[in-house]
């Protein structure tokens, strides 16, 4: 399904707090072009961007890697970290000795982090666990598995509980083993949509950058909204947002390129991935 030229452009918004700094001040109704937001979990938006049900979206970087020939990156937007993220968490029930060759339950909502976990377990820890995907419910996952991977707000809420498990932060592990940062999500536009609507995509892109800039200057509105909508303390959310980077410069690109290289080495990706920016972004 592809949008026709008079249909509104559909913009995917990941329904997790990690993208708020880019979307918080973004108001599609104030734009000249017709556009609408579509909320979803990363895995749903990944699928919708692939089928053309949406035109531009924050998606898992792994999903970009799978479809790089059909997408362009909106430059300088990402969800990245240089170390600890606090929302990409492996909850470990059994000793790591057992987890390495045991069973790991992984949330259905992710594409980047499930493959990051495979890289960490197989390449760095020399393990070969069995993976299964499951709805993001920590107790149900750990009834049947030695460890469970949650991302986003599901991971944050679970980390606040008195759960008694050991917790590994995937951003931390990646940094520890590689020395690099990691990019979990990027903003991608379908090439066919961008060719049909370059001006609208430019307007949307400028508005996203402006929203990101405002949130970086003053994260306090995000912090209060997160406390109100999700819970936790102001200091938790200040630290959470400060630990994320929403830029996509040389350092983020280096970390993501290494991830794609390792994913290929493990057969998780069939082709090498090049990071190709939307060529008209220079005019936006
Ligand atoms: C930092 C995060 O990054 C995310 C992880 C994703 C993935 O694993 O596919 C996709 C988008 C982001 O939501 C997070 O979920 O907390």
TrEMBL record:
Superkingdom of this protein's organism: Bacteria
Keyword Lyase (UniProt): yes
Gene Ontology BP annotations: menaquinone biosynthetic process
Keyword terms, alphabetized: Lyase, Menaquinone biosynthesis
Pathway linked to the protein: Quinol/quinone metabolism; menaquinone biosynthesis
Enzyme class: lyase
InterPro entries for this protein: Menaquinone_biosynth, MqnA
One GO MF term: hydro-lyase activity
EC number assigned by the record: 4.2.1.151
HAMAP family given in the database record: MqnA
Functional description taken from the UniProt entry: Catalyzes the dehydration of chorismate into 3-[(1-carboxyvinyl)oxy]benzoate, a step in the biosynthesis of menaquinone (MK, vitamin K2).
UniProt family annotation: Belongs to the MqnA/MqnD family. MqnA subfamily.
Name of the molecule in the record: Chorismate dehydratase
Gene from which the chain derives: mqnA
């Amino acid at each position: 399904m592809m949008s026709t030229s008079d249909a509104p452009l559909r913009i995917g918004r990941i329904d997790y707090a990690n993208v708020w700094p880019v979307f918080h001040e973004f108001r599609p109704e104030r734009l000249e072009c017709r556009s609408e937001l579509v909320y979803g979990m990363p895995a749903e938006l990944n699928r919708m961007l692939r089928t053309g049900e949406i035109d531009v979206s924050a998606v898992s970087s792994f999903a970009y890697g799978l479809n790089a020939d059909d997408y362009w990156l909106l430059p300088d937007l990402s969800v990245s970290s240089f170390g600890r993220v606090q929302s990409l968490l492996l909850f470990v029930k059994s000793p790591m000795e057992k987890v390495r060759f045991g069973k790991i339950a992984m949330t259905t909502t992710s594409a980047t982090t499930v493959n990051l976990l495979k890289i960490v377990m197989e390449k760095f820890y020399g393990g070969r666990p069995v993976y299964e995907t499951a709805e993001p419910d920590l107790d149900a996952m750990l009834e049947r598995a030695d460890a469970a991977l949650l991302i986003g707000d599901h991971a944050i809420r679970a980390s606040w509980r008195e759960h008694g498990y050991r917790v590994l932060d995937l951003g931390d592990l990646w940094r520890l083993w590689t020395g690099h940062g990691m990019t979990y999500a990027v903003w991608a536009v379908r090439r066919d949509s961008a060719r049909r609507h370059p001006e609208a995509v430019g307007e949307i892109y400028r508005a996203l950058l402006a929203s990101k800039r405002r949130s970086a200057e003053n994260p306090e509105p995000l912090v209060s909204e997160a406390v109100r909508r999700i819970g936790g303390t102001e200091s938790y959310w200040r630290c959470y947002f400060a630990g994320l980077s929403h830029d996509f410069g040389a350092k983020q690109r280096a970390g993501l390129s290494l991830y794609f290289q390792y994913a290929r080495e493990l057969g998780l990706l069939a082709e090498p991935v090049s990071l190709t920016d939307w060529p008209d972004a220079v005019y936006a």
